[in-house]
Protein backbone atom coordinates (compact mmCIF):
# COMPACT_ATOMS: atom_id res chain seq x y z
CA UNK A 1 0.00 0.00 0.00
CA UNK A 2 1.50 3.41 -0.97
CA UNK A 3 1.96 6.23 1.51
CA UNK A 4 -0.98 8.27 0.20
CA UNK A 5 -3.44 5.40 0.58
CA UNK A 6 -2.00 4.52 3.98
CA UNK A 7 -2.37 8.14 5.07
CA UNK A 8 -5.95 8.36 3.89
CA UNK A 9 -6.85 5.09 5.60
CA UNK A 10 -5.24 6.23 8.83
CA UNK A 11 -7.05 9.59 8.68
CA UNK A 12 -10.36 7.84 8.13
CA UNK A 13 -9.69 5.53 11.05
CA UNK A 14 -8.92 8.44 13.34
CA UNK A 15 -12.13 10.21 12.35
CA UNK A 16 -14.28 7.11 12.84
CA UNK A 17 -12.62 6.35 16.17
CA UNK A 18 -12.83 9.84 17.69
CA UNK A 19 -16.04 9.27 19.63
CA UNK A 20 -14.83 5.92 21.01
CA UNK A 21 -11.57 7.50 22.14
CA UNK A 22 -13.51 10.05 24.18
CA UNK A 23 -15.38 7.28 25.99
CA UNK A 24 -12.54 4.77 26.43
CA UNK A 25 -9.01 4.89 27.78
CA UNK A 26 -7.81 2.41 25.13
CA UNK A 27 -9.10 1.90 21.59
CA UNK A 28 -8.14 -1.25 19.71
CA UNK A 29 -8.96 -1.32 16.00
CA UNK A 30 -8.82 -4.71 14.27
CA UNK A 31 -8.72 -5.27 10.50
CA UNK A 32 -10.39 -8.43 9.16
CA UNK A 33 -10.60 -9.53 5.54
CA UNK A 34 -13.62 -11.80 6.07
CA UNK A 35 -17.24 -10.75 6.69
CA UNK A 36 -18.50 -10.61 10.28
CA UNK A 37 -20.75 -13.61 9.63
CA UNK A 38 -17.66 -15.78 9.11
CA UNK A 39 -16.47 -17.80 12.08
CA UNK A 40 -13.39 -15.61 12.36
CA UNK A 41 -15.63 -12.55 12.49
CA UNK A 42 -17.78 -14.14 15.17
CA UNK A 43 -14.64 -15.07 17.10
CA UNK A 44 -13.53 -11.43 17.04
CA UNK A 45 -16.99 -10.41 18.24
CA UNK A 46 -16.64 -12.79 21.18
CA UNK A 47 -13.27 -11.21 22.00
CA UNK A 48 -14.70 -7.69 21.71
CA UNK A 49 -17.66 -8.46 23.98
CA UNK A 50 -15.43 -9.93 26.69
CA UNK A 51 -12.84 -7.15 26.58
CA UNK A 52 -15.39 -4.36 26.71
CA UNK A 53 -17.38 -6.02 29.49
CA UNK A 54 -14.37 -6.89 31.65
CA UNK A 55 -12.90 -3.40 31.24
CA UNK A 56 -16.20 -1.67 32.03
CA UNK A 57 -15.88 0.24 28.78
CA UNK A 58 -12.32 1.43 29.41
CA UNK A 59 -11.21 -0.55 26.33
CA UNK A 60 -13.11 -0.08 23.05
CA UNK A 61 -12.65 -2.72 20.35
CA UNK A 62 -13.55 -1.72 16.76
CA UNK A 63 -13.70 -4.41 14.05
CA UNK A 64 -13.31 -3.41 10.39
CA UNK A 65 -14.42 -6.49 8.46
CA UNK A 66 -14.58 -7.51 4.79
CA UNK A 67 -11.18 -5.96 3.95
CA UNK A 68 -12.67 -2.46 4.12
CA UNK A 69 -9.35 -1.11 5.38
CA UNK A 70 -6.67 -3.63 4.45
CA UNK A 71 -6.50 -6.77 2.36
CA UNK A 72 -5.04 -9.89 3.96
CA UNK A 73 -1.63 -9.34 2.35
CA UNK A 74 -1.47 -5.76 3.68
CA UNK A 75 -2.16 -6.58 7.33
CA UNK A 76 1.40 -7.54 8.42
CA UNK A 77 2.79 -4.19 7.24
CA UNK A 78 -0.16 -2.17 8.52
CA UNK A 79 0.06 -3.64 12.01
CA UNK A 80 3.85 -3.76 12.14
CA UNK A 81 4.10 -0.09 11.18
CA UNK A 82 1.45 0.99 13.67
CA UNK A 83 -1.04 2.19 11.00
CA UNK A 84 -3.60 0.11 12.91
CA UNK A 85 -3.43 -1.50 16.33
CA UNK A 86 -4.36 -5.04 15.32
CA UNK A 87 -5.27 -7.23 12.38
CA UNK A 88 -6.10 -10.75 11.30
CA UNK A 89 -3.83 -12.29 8.67
CA UNK A 90 -3.38 -15.69 7.13
CA UNK A 91 -0.24 -17.16 8.70
CA UNK A 92 1.28 -17.66 5.29
CA UNK A 93 1.37 -13.87 4.76
CA UNK A 94 4.51 -13.89 6.90
CA UNK A 95 6.39 -16.33 4.70
CA UNK A 96 8.52 -13.59 3.13
CA UNK A 97 10.10 -12.78 6.49
CA UNK A 98 9.65 -16.16 8.16
CA UNK A 99 9.78 -19.09 5.69
CA UNK A 100 9.17 -21.63 8.46
CA UNK A 101 5.51 -20.54 8.81
CA UNK A 102 4.82 -22.68 5.78
CA UNK A 103 5.33 -25.83 7.81
CA UNK A 104 1.53 -25.71 8.14
CA UNK A 105 1.21 -25.90 4.36
CA UNK A 106 3.45 -28.90 3.79
CA UNK A 107 1.11 -31.29 1.97
CA UNK A 108 -0.63 -33.77 4.28
CA UNK A 109 1.88 -33.21 7.13
CA UNK A 110 -0.60 -32.17 9.83
CA UNK A 111 -3.38 -34.44 8.64
CA UNK A 112 -5.36 -34.93 11.85
CA UNK A 113 -6.90 -32.71 14.51
CA UNK A 114 -4.62 -34.28 17.12
CA UNK A 115 -1.49 -33.30 15.18
CA UNK A 116 -2.77 -29.80 14.51
CA UNK A 117 -3.56 -29.20 18.19
CA UNK A 118 -0.05 -30.28 19.18
CA UNK A 119 1.48 -28.04 16.52
CA UNK A 120 -0.46 -24.92 17.55
CA UNK A 121 0.01 -25.29 21.30
CA UNK A 122 1.69 -22.04 22.47
CA UNK A 123 4.82 -23.82 23.73
CA UNK A 124 5.13 -26.32 20.88
CA UNK A 125 8.38 -26.68 18.89
CA UNK A 126 6.42 -25.53 15.84
CA UNK A 127 4.37 -22.57 17.03
CA UNK A 128 6.87 -21.30 19.59
CA UNK A 129 9.61 -20.29 17.13
CA UNK A 130 7.02 -18.74 14.78
CA UNK A 131 5.51 -16.51 17.45
CA UNK A 132 8.99 -15.42 18.47
CA UNK A 133 10.07 -14.65 14.90
CA UNK A 134 6.97 -12.53 14.22
CA UNK A 135 8.16 -10.13 16.92
CA UNK A 136 10.90 -9.03 14.50
CA UNK A 137 8.19 -7.64 12.16
CA UNK A 138 6.99 -5.11 14.72
CA UNK A 139 4.01 -7.23 15.74
CA UNK A 140 3.14 -9.53 18.61
CA UNK A 141 0.89 -12.57 18.20
CA UNK A 142 -2.20 -12.24 20.37
CA UNK A 143 -3.97 -15.46 19.39
CA UNK A 144 -4.30 -18.04 16.63
CA UNK A 145 -7.59 -18.62 14.83
CA UNK A 146 -8.28 -22.07 13.41
CA UNK A 147 -9.62 -22.13 9.86
CA UNK A 148 -9.62 -25.86 9.19
CA UNK A 149 -8.22 -27.97 6.40
CA UNK A 150 -7.58 -26.78 2.86
CA UNK A 151 -10.02 -28.14 0.29
CA UNK A 152 -10.28 -27.77 -3.48
CA UNK A 153 -13.11 -26.15 -5.42
CA UNK A 154 -13.96 -26.86 -9.04
CA UNK A 155 -16.75 -26.93 -11.59
CA UNK A 156 -17.96 -29.99 -13.46
CA UNK A 157 -16.40 -32.65 -11.24
CA UNK A 158 -13.90 -33.32 -8.44
CA UNK A 159 -10.11 -33.02 -8.49
CA UNK A 160 -9.35 -36.65 -7.66
CA UNK A 161 -5.63 -36.94 -8.50
CA UNK A 162 -2.70 -34.81 -9.71
CA UNK A 163 -3.72 -35.75 -13.25
CA UNK A 164 -6.80 -33.55 -12.80
CA UNK A 165 -4.55 -30.56 -12.09
CA UNK A 166 -2.65 -30.77 -15.36
CA UNK A 167 -2.69 -27.43 -17.14
CA UNK A 168 -5.27 -25.91 -14.79
CA UNK A 169 -5.05 -22.44 -13.25
CA UNK A 170 -5.40 -22.72 -9.48
CA UNK A 171 -6.16 -20.08 -6.85
CA UNK A 172 -3.76 -20.31 -3.90
CA UNK A 173 -3.10 -18.07 -0.91
CA UNK A 174 0.58 -18.76 -0.28
CA UNK A 175 3.86 -19.62 -1.97
CA UNK A 176 4.07 -23.17 -0.62
CA UNK A 177 0.56 -23.99 -1.80
CA UNK A 178 1.74 -22.63 -5.14
CA UNK A 179 4.68 -25.04 -5.04
CA UNK A 180 2.20 -27.84 -4.35
CA UNK A 181 0.16 -26.86 -7.39
CA UNK A 182 3.25 -26.66 -9.59
CA UNK A 183 4.49 -30.05 -8.38
CA UNK A 184 1.14 -31.60 -9.29
CA UNK A 185 0.95 -30.09 -12.76
CA UNK A 186 -1.10 -26.93 -12.29
CA UNK A 187 -0.42 -23.21 -12.64
CA UNK A 188 -0.81 -21.32 -9.31
CA UNK A 189 -2.19 -17.80 -8.96
CA UNK A 190 -2.13 -16.04 -5.59
CA UNK A 191 -5.51 -14.37 -4.99
CA UNK A 192 -6.67 -12.78 -1.74
CA UNK A 193 -9.62 -14.38 0.02
CA UNK A 194 -11.78 -11.32 -0.52
CA UNK A 195 -11.13 -11.51 -4.29
CA UNK A 196 -11.66 -15.21 -4.91
CA UNK A 197 -15.43 -15.03 -5.61
CA UNK A 198 -14.83 -12.80 -8.62
CA UNK A 199 -11.87 -14.92 -9.72
CA UNK A 200 -14.09 -17.99 -9.89
CA UNK A 201 -16.99 -16.09 -11.41
CA UNK A 202 -14.83 -14.63 -14.17
CA UNK A 203 -12.91 -17.83 -14.86
CA UNK A 204 -9.59 -16.25 -13.86
CA UNK A 205 -8.78 -19.64 -12.34
CA UNK A 206 -10.19 -23.13 -12.89
CA UNK A 207 -9.64 -24.55 -9.40
CA UNK A 208 -9.72 -22.95 -5.97
CA UNK A 209 -8.16 -23.66 -2.60
CA UNK A 210 -9.72 -22.43 0.63
CA UNK A 211 -11.20 -23.66 3.90
CA UNK A 212 -14.72 -25.03 3.69
CA UNK A 213 -15.97 -22.39 6.14
CA UNK A 214 -14.97 -19.80 3.54
CA UNK A 215 -17.26 -21.50 1.03
CA UNK A 216 -20.15 -20.79 3.38
CA UNK A 217 -19.24 -17.28 4.51
CA UNK A 218 -18.53 -16.14 0.94
CA UNK A 219 -21.36 -18.12 -0.75
CA UNK A 220 -18.86 -19.68 -3.14
CA UNK A 221 -21.47 -22.27 -4.18
CA UNK A 222 -22.76 -19.54 -6.47
CA UNK A 223 -19.61 -19.82 -8.61
CA UNK A 224 -18.26 -23.35 -7.95
CA UNK A 225 -20.17 -26.63 -7.82
CA UNK A 226 -17.77 -29.25 -6.38
CA UNK A 227 -15.66 -29.61 -3.22
CA UNK A 228 -12.85 -32.15 -3.07
CA UNK A 229 -12.02 -32.90 0.57
CA UNK A 230 -8.24 -33.20 0.35
CA UNK A 231 -7.37 -31.50 3.67
CA UNK A 232 -3.88 -31.18 2.24
CA UNK A 233 -2.87 -28.26 4.48
CA UNK A 234 -3.87 -26.75 7.81
CA UNK A 235 -5.05 -23.17 7.43
CA UNK A 236 -4.27 -20.89 10.35
CA UNK A 237 -4.96 -17.21 10.84
CA UNK A 238 -3.30 -15.12 13.52
CA UNK A 239 -4.44 -11.99 15.32
CA UNK A 240 -1.45 -9.68 15.72
CA UNK A 241 -1.05 -6.40 17.58
CA UNK A 242 1.48 -3.64 17.05
CA UNK A 243 4.23 -4.31 19.57
CA UNK A 244 4.87 -0.66 20.50
CA UNK A 245 1.15 -0.10 21.05
CA UNK A 246 0.91 -3.27 23.12
CA UNK A 247 3.91 -2.41 25.28
CA UNK A 248 2.41 1.01 25.97
CA UNK A 249 -0.82 -0.37 27.43
CA UNK A 250 -1.48 -0.37 31.17
CA UNK A 251 -0.78 -3.79 32.71
CA UNK A 252 -4.43 -4.25 33.65
CA UNK A 253 -5.50 -3.69 30.04
CA UNK A 254 -2.92 -6.17 28.78
CA UNK A 255 -4.27 -8.73 31.24
CA UNK A 256 -7.88 -8.25 30.14
CA UNK A 257 -6.95 -8.47 26.44
CA UNK A 258 -4.65 -11.49 26.91
CA UNK A 259 -7.29 -13.44 28.84
CA UNK A 260 -9.97 -12.69 26.25
CA UNK A 261 -7.55 -13.68 23.47
CA UNK A 262 -6.84 -17.04 25.12
CA UNK A 263 -10.56 -17.69 25.54
CA UNK A 264 -11.20 -16.77 21.90
CA UNK A 265 -8.41 -19.05 20.69
CA UNK A 266 -9.67 -22.02 22.67
CA UNK A 267 -13.27 -21.43 21.60
CA UNK A 268 -12.61 -21.36 17.87
CA UNK A 269 -10.28 -24.38 18.08
CA UNK A 270 -12.86 -26.42 19.97
CA UNK A 271 -15.64 -25.46 17.59
CA UNK A 272 -13.72 -26.01 14.35
CA UNK A 273 -15.09 -29.50 13.66
CA UNK A 274 -18.67 -28.31 14.07
CA UNK A 275 -17.98 -25.19 12.01
CA UNK A 276 -16.66 -27.29 9.13
CA UNK A 277 -19.57 -29.74 9.34
CA UNK A 278 -22.09 -26.90 9.19
CA UNK A 279 -20.26 -25.49 6.17
CA UNK A 280 -20.31 -28.85 4.37
CA UNK A 281 -24.03 -29.18 5.14
CA UNK A 282 -24.68 -25.68 3.79
CA UNK A 283 -22.67 -26.44 0.65
CA UNK A 284 -24.75 -29.57 0.01
CA UNK A 285 -27.99 -27.68 0.63
CA UNK A 286 -26.89 -25.16 -1.98
CA UNK A 287 -26.25 -27.79 -4.62
CA UNK A 288 -22.55 -28.56 -4.26
CA UNK A 289 -21.14 -32.06 -4.72
CA UNK A 290 -18.75 -33.20 -1.94
CA UNK A 291 -16.06 -35.70 -2.95
CA UNK A 292 -13.65 -37.44 -0.56
CA UNK A 293 -10.58 -38.95 -2.28
CA UNK A 294 -9.75 -42.62 -1.76
CA UNK A 295 -6.63 -43.78 0.08
CA UNK A 296 -5.02 -44.59 -3.26
CA UNK A 297 -5.76 -41.10 -4.59
CA UNK A 298 -4.29 -39.47 -1.47
CA UNK A 299 -1.19 -41.62 -1.89
CA UNK A 300 -0.78 -40.26 -5.42
CA UNK A 301 -1.04 -36.69 -4.10
CA UNK A 302 1.56 -37.41 -1.41
CA UNK A 303 4.01 -38.89 -3.89
CA UNK A 304 3.70 -35.90 -6.21
CA UNK A 305 4.27 -33.50 -3.31
CA UNK A 306 7.88 -34.39 -2.44
CA UNK A 307 9.36 -31.35 -4.25
CA UNK A 308 7.39 -29.11 -1.85
CA UNK A 309 9.20 -30.61 1.14
CA UNK A 310 12.53 -30.27 -0.63
CA UNK A 311 11.91 -26.57 -1.32
CA UNK A 312 10.81 -25.96 2.29
CA UNK A 313 14.00 -27.47 3.69
CA UNK A 314 16.12 -25.53 1.22
CA UNK A 315 14.66 -22.27 2.58
CA UNK A 316 14.49 -23.14 6.27
CA UNK A 317 17.49 -25.42 6.87
CA UNK A 318 17.91 -26.88 10.34
CA UNK A 319 14.98 -24.91 11.80
CA UNK A 320 12.64 -26.35 9.19
CA UNK A 321 14.00 -29.86 9.65
CA UNK A 322 13.42 -29.60 13.41
CA UNK A 323 9.80 -28.67 12.76
CA UNK A 324 9.26 -31.56 10.36
CA UNK A 325 10.85 -33.94 12.87
CA UNK A 326 8.57 -32.63 15.61
CA UNK A 327 5.50 -33.06 13.41
CA UNK A 328 6.55 -36.61 12.57
CA UNK A 329 6.53 -37.44 16.29
CA UNK A 330 3.09 -35.97 17.00
Q: Layout of helices and strands, plus pairs?
A:
Layout: H1 3-23, E1 26-31, H2 39-54, E2 59-64, H3 75-81, E3 86-90, H4 113-120, H5 127-134, E4 139-154, E5 169-172, H6 175-183, E6 187-190, H7 196-202, E7 207-211, H8 212-217, E8 226-228, E9 234-242, H9 243-247, H10 251-285, E10 289-291, H11 295-304, H12 306-328
Parallel strand pairs: 1-2, 1-3, 5-6, 5-7, 8-10
Antiparallel strand pairs: 3-9, 4-7, 4-8, 4-9
Helix pairs in contact: 2-10, 6-12
Distance between the termini: 40 Å
CATH class: Alpha Beta
Classify the beta-strand content into a percent band. 15-25%
Structural class: alpha/beta
CATH homology superfamily name: Bacterial extracellular solute-binding protein, family 7
Helix content range: 40-55%
Q: If you average the pLDDT, what whole number results? A: 93
Low-confidence stretches: 16-21
Rg (C-alpha, Å): 20 Å
- The CATH topology is D-Maltodextrin-Binding Protein, domain 2
Largest sheet: 10 strands, mixed
Number of domains: 1
Topology order in helix (H) and strand (E) letters: HEHEHEHHEEHEHEHEEHHEHH
Number of helices: 12
Number of strands: 10
CATH architecture: 3-Layer(aba) Sandwich
Sum up the overall morphology in one term.
Answer: globular
Descriptive notes:
The protein is globular and about 60 Å long. Strands 1, 2, 3, 4, 5, 6, 7, 8, 9 and 10 form a ten-stranded mixed beta sheet that branches. The protein has one domain (3-328): D-Maltodextrin-Binding Protein, domain 2 (3-Layer(aba) Sandwich). The N and C termini lie far apart (40 Å). It is 47% helix and 18% strand. Mean pLDDT is 93; it is low at 16-21. It has 330 residues and is α/β, with parallel strands linked by helices. Helix 2 runs antiparallel to helix 10. 44% of the residues are buried. It has helices spanning 3-23, 39-54, 75-81, 113-120, 127-134, 175-183, 196-202, 212-217, 243-247, 251-285, 295-304, 306-328, and strands spanning 26-31, 59-64, 86-90, 139-154, 169-172, 187-190, 207-211, 226-228, 234-242, 289-291.
